[in-house]
């Protein structure tokens, strides 16, 4: 411990922390500012840990689902490795200026649905399933849209 923390007795520090936690309901903007400046406060209470993990899952689930769907369902396990490292507009991974707009659109939709599952009080019984709900929606939408627009998939080399 530093000399600064020894200036105050432990009872005083505990009382100050308790007072801050009691007042957080009255000043939510100050609490969110404290979380932004000191992110370890996200783990101060068990419900905040669950909320943090649920919010992370709303982003990670759709991302992983899009990657797996693209590899296993859309491209059926075939990858043109040399095309991954070249930036030519006629290659299968170029999409639209190097960005896959379908993946972005599906990601946004799945994250919105996952966030609704986490934050809507009516969906509280299933809010811990946001990873699977967002991931399932992303996999389904991405698979359907990309299989319908499969003109790019025919440019793979026949090895």
TrEMBL record:
What keywords tag this UniProt record?
A: Membrane, Transmembrane, Transmembrane helix
**InterPro entries found in the cross-reference section:** Pur-cyt_permease (IPR001248), Uracil/uridine/allantoin_perm (IPR045225), WH-like_DNA-bd_sf (IPR036388)
User: Quick one: signal sequence residues?
Assistant: none
Q: How does it sit in the membrane?
A: Multi-pass membrane protein
Localization terms from the record: Membrane
One annotated GO molecular function: nucleobase transmembrane transporter activity
Domain of life, per lineage? Bacteria
Got a GO cellular component term for this one?
Answer: plasma membrane
Where is this chain primarily localised? membrane
- State which residue ranges cross the membrane: 48-73, 94-120, 126-145
Describe the family membership recorded for this protein in Swiss-Prot or TrEMBL. Belongs to the purine-cytosine permease (2.A.39) family.
UniProt protein name? Amino acid transporter
The species this protein was found in: Komagataeibacter intermedius AF2
